[in-house]
Amino acid sequence: xxxxxxxxxxxxxxxxxxxxxxxxxxxxxxxxxxxxxxxxxxxxxxxxxxxxxxxxxxxxxxxxxxxxxxxxxxxxxxxxxxxxxxxxxxxxxxxxxxxxxxxxxxxxxxxxxxxxxxxxxxxxxxxxxxxxxxxxxxxxxxxxxxxxxxxxxxxxxxxxxxxxxxxxxxxxxxxxxxxxxxxxxxxxxxxxxxxxxxxxxxxxxxxxxxxxxxxxxxxxxxxxxxxxxxxxxxxxxxxxxxxxxxxxxxxxxxxxxxxxxxxxxxxxxxxxxxxxxxxxxxxxxxxxxxxxxxxxxxxxxxxxxxxxxxxxxxxxxxxxxxxxxxxxxxxxxxxxxxxxxxxxxxxxxxxxxxxxxxxxxxxxxxxxxxxxxxxxxxxxxxxxxxxxxxxxxxxxxxxxxxxxxxxxxxxxxxxxxxxxxxxxxxxxxxxxxxxxxxxxxxxxxxxxxxxxxxxxxxxxxxxxxxxxxxxxx
Length: 473
Prior knowledge:
By secondary structure, the protein is an alpha/beta fold. Helix content is 27%, strand content 19%. An eight-stranded parallel barrel has the order 1-2-3-4-7-11-12-13, surrounded by six helices. Strands 8-10-9 form a three-stranded antiparallel β-sheet. A three-stranded antiparallel β-sheet has the order 14-15-18, covered by helices on one side. The chain starts with 22 loop residues before the first helix and ends with a strand.
C-alpha cells in the first residue's frame, strides 16, 4: 500500500483562547495562522506552485507514440531510496535496457500530492520521476488515488488516511473537476511524462445498490481528466479504463459471460459490461488499459498454471476486437495467487520466471503491445520473491534478479511493432513448451519440472526444469 504521510502535530487554534497573551505570543499565533487555510487545515510542507516544472525533464521524442513496450510498476518501496551504491546499481542496470516505468500519484510510494486544495506536496513523486529519468526509462503516470478532501475525508498535512479502504475510495462526483485539475497540474510539473493512465482498477466505483460497477461515474471522471490533459498538451497520450478482467470457475453461471470463456474459466460479464460502456462513451483514448490474473477469482489455475495464461490471449483479443487499432496495455498481470498478506512466494524462482514468460507470450499473441510487471520490492532484507532486484536498504543491495533479466530481454527482443513469426516445434514437444519468435529471436519455455530434450526452429537442445531459453535466428 501507499507510503504513510508524516504526523505534523498541527492543531486548530482559536483566537478567543488567546486574549490577553503578550505581543510575542500573539506574533507566534499569527505565524501559525498563516499555515492554516480557510478550513483550518494545516498546509505544512506544501507549496502553491505544484505546476512548476520539476528538475530537468528528459527531452521527449518528436513523435509520442501510444505504445511504450514492456516494463514495470514502482510499488511502495523502490530503488529511489537507499544507499547511493544500491540505488545507482539499479539505475545503471536499468540503463542498459531502458524500460517504461509506472508511478502512481498517491500511494505505492508517493505521498498525498494535494493535502489541501490548491496546496501541493510532490516530494515523493519528484524523487520517483527523478529515478525514472536517471535510469533512462519512459515515465508513465497512473492517476490514482485521490486526496482525502476530495472523498469526504479530512483536509490538511498529516491527516491522510492510509488505510486500504480510504485509499481505494474514489473522489466524490462534486470533486471530479478538482481531480481533473490535479491531473493537469501533474502533467505541467512533469512535461516529459507523455503517458497517463486514468485511475486504478475502478477502485471505489462499485455500485452496491445494483451489484455492478459504477461505469457511469468512472467514465464521467475519465472524460474530465482526458480533456484536462489534452488541454495541457494535445500530444499527451491518455488511456483507461484499467478494469480487472476477472474470471470465474467454468461451472459458475451467475455473472458469467456466455462468450468469453475457455479452459481457464469464464469472464465476469459485469466487467465486460463496464468496459463496453466506457468504450462507447469515452471522450477519447490513445490506448486501452486492463489488468488481471491468469487465475480465477477463487485463485484456481485452470487447467494448470501454464495453460491458465491463455486467458491473457483470449482477453486481449476480446478487447482488441472492440477497440480497433488502439494499442492494448496490461497495467498489471499476475500468474501466481497471493496469500493473505498479498505475498507470492510459494514457487521457486525458475518456476515463477517460466510461468511469467508464458504470460508475456500469451499477451503478445493476443495483440498486447505494452505490459507492466508489478514489482514487489521489500523494504529490507535479502529475500525478495519475484522482485526485479534485491532491496536497496543496504549498500550491497540492488542486485538484479532473474525476473529483471526476463522483462528486460523481452522488452529488447519484442518491442512495439514486432511482427511475430511461426517456428517449427517437434510434435512431441508441443504440449511441453511455449514459444514466441520474430525474425531475430526465439523465446522458449519449458513448462515441465524436469529436464527435456527438444527441437525448436530446426535446432535440438536440452532444457532444464522450467528453463527459459533464448535462441538467435
